[in-house]
Protein 1
Amino acid sequence: MKSKKNFAPWLIIVGAFLILVNTLYVVGSGQPIILSSFYVGSVDQIQSLTSVWGRMAFGFPGIAEGWAAIIWIFLAVFNFLLSFLLLVKTGKNMSLKYIGLILSLLSIAVGGGFILGLVLCFFGYLVVLQPGLPFEETFIGKIYGVAKLDSSFLSRIAEEKTALHTGALVLVFVNLLSGIGSGLYSYNLEIIRANLDTISSSSSQAILFEIFFMGGVHWGLPLVAMVFLQMGLAIIKWAIFSLIIYVLGAKMVGSSARYEDIAKIVAFAYVPVCLQIFMPAVLVWPWLFFEWPFIVILVTNFWFFVILMTGLKIVLDISAGRAFGVSVFCSSIYWFFNSVVLSSFLNFPGIRFSIQPIDVSVLIVSTSALVAVMLGVFKRYVSV
């Protein structure tokens, strides 16, 4: 792979250019960019739809009007010029790099360069903020290595002494993004539910039109507090999940792996969950209340499971079949604890799925135990 000195500044330039184009378009049109599957002109039409309708929004309504439009154009131009300056002096001007990162993050209000520009700038700036390191050793490089299921990289994580600290940072980073995404989505979902019940009023019609057709996203201070609460809980749940795997996985298969080795793999396995931050940008009717969030969570958690299984195969030094059995068994126990036990004490914004009655949840855990037995998880032998 090319050194970060060669490709990271170019990522920033491309991203900053997309942000500039997106900003000029939003300012010129006076509204966010809305992409929808086909034309629907009113909330009443959405309610009567029998086929699937979806929309994606880039930016928030009313954010780039009047004098604010001039400010957003100035910030976008400055960010674009800053990207060229960093290309010339990659190893210097650390303060300018932080300024560029902040400006890129702020661009989400006007569409974030069609989202892609923001992502490119974000990744690029995180790379150049760690000068002197090969790409694979940077924070983003490690996230990339895990996401693409690089088994050699997962092996290095298990042996790296600082990987536990980095894993904790990854966990906080991922839960910040996923907490914002799932929290905003569920928060606005409740607003949609409440206003659908009173849709005959003009105020409810206005709110629903803003959310569905103008890309409006509502938030409140309780939501912000809950995002930080989720980040803190993520550390606790990480420790519990790692302990479950250590006791019911490593010890049962006779592995000599340490608790911290397993904790490293578990932390990095959460990387795909950060994609849930994009959930509020998309609405799908009539899949709004269940199918759409379920699909997103299913995909990201399946990706998480594959990374976990691959990592446990390496750390526990067992076959792929046994690694699958350990992952299924321990994940089902953790899921039962998280969805049945922990959720009964805590109630905060976010997308969660629980299965009722509780007997069905117990059946799922029992079935996973049988799968683990059939795959030889509890046999004490070392595969070759």
Note: Residues 147-384 form one domain.
Protein 2
Amino acid sequence: MSEQQAEGGFAVVTGASSGIGLELAKQFISHGFDVLIVAEDPSIDTAAAVLSASGRSVQAVRADLATAQGNEAVVAAVGERTVDALALNAGRAVAGRFVENDLDDELALIRLNIASPVHLARRLLPGMVARQSGKVLITSSVAATMPGPYYATYAASKSFLLSFAEAIRYELKDCGVTVTALMPGPTDTNFFDAGGMQDTPIYQAKKDDAAEVAADGFEAMMAGDDHVVAGSVKNRMQTSAGKLLSEPARAAVHAKQTEPQGEKG
């Protein structure tokens, strides 16, 4: 059998009430998977109802993944089932100048964007390793490739996830388990509204379709690729061009997209 495994099985998707996460769940279902979908907000139940129309088994778990208890609730919901695919997608942003942002908001971001993927990977990966079979997709971002002024902890968290995905991928290279980093650019979801980024150039810019990003991510994960820069060609060009710039220059380029317009004057 090739690196791409036969379709079907059981998948866990976090951050699946909307956006890329919901579209990933649709990808799994359309390829014969049953899914367990996770989010904190009540709309996860609505998402489950829509997805269940496919005839596949869909279980919704409402859990705050910024807490250890929330992550353990996901592990408990998985139970003894074999996890064939794990999509660690939940995340959030906090916009604005770091020194002016609420500390609790920043720490909650770190717990959701960083601690939760680490927690769930550590709890669910051992079963994959024991079976010598499994696929993991970790949602990073093109923002991982450069400093991110005006959402500093978000960009830093995505850098962590890219490094984390690539590191554990190497550790598991002989275990029959693959780890893929999904690196979308600006995508048409509620991410920017939820993160308070309405007053930024990136909010007004054209964005990629979440369904297309999810399709790119699913295909790369099933192929066992190490990462995929999803969406438009612009994202790949930005990632490549950024490698030629110094860190201060990268930060300046990024800031032009994320600086609140109210900061100027």
Note: Confidence is low (pLDDT under 50) at residues 1-5.
Protein 3
Amino acid sequence: MDTQTADIAVVTGASSGIGYAIAEELAARGFDLVIAAEDSEIQRAADNLRAAGRRVWTVQADLATPEGVEGLYTEVRALGRPVAVVALNAGVGVGGEFARDGGLADELRTVDLNVRSTVHLTKRMLPDMVARGSGRLLFTSSIAATAPGPYEAVYAASKAFVQSFAEALRYELRDTGVTTTALMPGPTETEFFERADMEDTKVGQADKDDPREVAREGVDALLSGKDKVVAGSFKNKVQVAAGRILPEPAKARMHGSMTEPGSGH
């Protein structure tokens, strides 16, 4: 059993992008880390994070599968140390018209990673936190959770699920000492648009937020116990505010104008 006393933070999807930046931010604030991702870049990420003087354990696993989630939980439990923070960041998107583009396997994988693995890992990690009476959960949602998402319909719907899930758990946990926080970034400078085949869209071509700034705002909100934070540029906050008053067809039209394939040309 490890005898060190630093708090442990678990971060998924931590090999790059917002997940890596969240891990970096938590390391700078004194947390030891368990970081997870499917790709081998997780090892390089760990080497970089150790430069901050924290201990870092890596789990390379496909969290879109139940076996991957169970493997991560087993590795965390084996450390024998309580987990103070879980950042549920792993996610993927797929762009294009649902009826004509892409493939079912990619869309189901989006659901498996963004939705199913979030529920699965939360179900494993949360009871231990509740039993201890302390803990913080950070869910990487998106401003896409606030509107229908044409040309990324499955992704936007998955983030709406994550947002609702985080807010519902927060109410259930109100007297337990455990909090949930939803991080809602807008378009961010990551590999998301390349992987989702959305580089030729208006949003894919537009200026994007710095993942380190998004992560800093997210971790600030998490450690302050806030329910959510719209991170990044002011236009993200405007979009979320508009989403509270615009009818769904108008929000779908606005979103679709930014995500339609070829709209960036």
Note: The chain has a mean pLDDT of 94.
Protein 4
Amino acid sequence: MSTYALIGITGNVGGRAALKLLESGARVRAVVRSEEKGTPWKAKGAEVAVAEIDDAMALQKAFTGVDGAFVMTPTWFASEDMFAENRKAISTLGKALRAAAVPKVVFLSSIGAHRPHGTGAILKLHEMEQALGDLSSLTSLRAGWFMENYLGMIAYAKESGVLPSLLDHLDRPISMIATSDIGDQVARLLQENWSGQRIVELEAPERYSPNDVASTLTKVLKRPVKAEVLPHEQWESTYRSWGLTIGSAKAMAEMVDGFNKEWIVFEEPSQSVRGVTGLEKFFAKAVGSCPRP
């Protein structure tokens, strides 16, 4: 029976991947920051390995003896320099993965990660692809714009009938994906037979524009919702209002600018893998799970 170690198991992607692996009969090793965070996964039948992202020895121990590993790094939104924090983390991760001789590694990357500049926060994933590029078996899973980015706007859209959009071409479709589909793909990749360096670009069955999101919310919320562009000069202050530092807000604003300029795109769009979750299915589930006021 194969064993897979997963970082990020307490989040949407890692958690979904872990459940899929457990359902298939595989063993899962939950790599978490504390025993407390691992308790729910222990109850589901997973092993628990405690390791901080900056502890190479603990990570090496967590990765030793597994058949594959899924890794990702935090967002670092609370840091003034998310890139410096990320470089330290990927250096530590790389040391641990090499020392443990993990035979197969999947990591969460992003659409646009092939670009060396002009991508804002996505530059972290470009640097991660470069830093781990010498691993013998590595899949960089480049995901599209998370549908979950809209979850925090549902209540406002329901109340006001307005969907604020940082994407300033309201009719232009972009590549999106639900995190459940990313998790399913992670589990699939870990259990497939492959070797060498791979890029997998992942998006939903269709591409969607901000107007598509608004029209879908109109159906699901049963009230008119209209997408409206949030002016560029309000981007950084908006991110700051969500708790990001100045440095992180600037990185996110540059990322959105990259999407608007069509600089952040898939490298091989014709070869992208399609998930199964469409926008209406995603929002119907999201709205159905929201507590009633």
Note: The chain is about 40% helix and 20% strand.
